[in-house]
Amino acid sequence: MTMREVAAAAGVSTATVSRVINQSAGVDDVLARRVRKAVDDLGYRPNLIARGLRVQTTSVLALVFADVENPFFTSVCRGAEDTARRHGYSVILCNADEDIEKETEYVNVLASQSVAGVIISPASDLTDIGPLLRQDIAIVALDRRLALQTDSVHSNSRAGARNATRHLLDSGARRVGCITGPRSVSTAEERLGGYRDAVAAASLPDDPELFEYANFREDGGYRAAKRMLELPEPPDALFVANNRMLVGAFGACMEAGVQIPDELSIVGFDDLAWADFSQPSITTVRQATYEIGAAAAQLLVDRIRNRDAPPREIIFEPELVVRGSSVKTGSRTPV
Questions:
Q1: Alpha helices in the chain (DSSP H)
Q2: Of 35-44, 101-110, 199-208, 313-322, which gets the smallest average pLDDT?
Q3: Is pLDDT above 90 for 56?
Q4: β-bridge mates for residue 211, sequence order
Q5: How many Å separate Cα 304 from the centre of its chain?
Q6: What pTM value is reported for the model?
């Protein structure tokens, strides 16, 4: 939709449309109302970035993240912003809130504003980046995968989950549960896959009662843990596939009076700022969050400068940080 089409619908000149959009003085109230109605009816969005600039010189990058309340994305954002600013780019942040419809709205707005590039952590496997591609906007996928091949940066989620589950088994657990994220998110499937790898390697049964898809939020972790704790034969350990669900799982354990780690040992994915200071301290799979954000921004800048280069993938190896929540009293400390 263009300003010329808005002008035609309102029966005014493009100059009048421009003055109304810019809230300039000197426009008759009747004409202004007609213009605003045409804008609403046609769904026109003025190109704020391109106003006074050519698309080729736009210096704004956008971050579209699935959940800015998650400390993982907070740290990633800092790494991306610092790197982008060193290259002369400003950064805007969009929170999709794990909502595909909200994410779609942001993608459409960013496409209409002709930003120089977008780093996106997709809310779902159904994420549509078509509007960005049609505007030839550079894209980097972060943490989660896109259906289309683009530059990408992520951790080795499967290996991290496998190591976490193996650690629980090495620490004496024999019935390990897994709480992972939504089926439509690649990291959820990868972390469940790593958990199942470790269970299979230990020659234990792949029991569907012992894993559950949740929503990557506290309430999802709480409900999943509560269900497992109420099983006739509850788990003696839990691997929880992100930090927010881990908080909910701890809440369910406290409510049920389950003692951690002696009755139930726990490992989470993504570190927590207070993990060392809780009682017990919390074993987690730590990701290089700042570095992931910095690498994504560098990939995006490189892509803007060289549009014809083949897509690149950068994979970071996560680190298992063993603390008190996963080692039962009297059990051996794994190497």
A1: 3-10, 14-21, 29-42, 71-86, 100-113, 130-134, 157-170, 186-201, 218-229, 243-256, 289-305
A2: 35-44
A3: no
A4: 178
A5: 22
A6: 0.80
Q: How many CB atoms lie within 10 A of CB 216?
A: 23
Does the structural domain 157-286+320-326 have CATH classification 3.40.50.2300? Answer: yes
Q: Where in the chain is the domain with CATH 3.40.50.2300?
A: 55-155+289-317, 157-286+320-326
β-pair partners for 321: 284
Indicate the pLDDT class of residue 201, thresholds 50, 70 and 90.
very high
Which residue in this structure is represented by tokens 């006074």?
52
Q: Which structure tokens are listed for 261?
A: 């780690």
Percent of the chain past pLDDT 90, that is, above it, reads 74
Span 55-155+289-317: which CATH code?
3.40.50.2300
Mean pLDDT of 224-228: 98
**Average of per-residue pLDDT across 174-194:** 96
Phi-psi region of 24 (alpha: psi -120 to 50; beta: other; left: phi over 0): beta
Pick from 71, 72, 62, 127: which is nearest to 99 by CA?
127
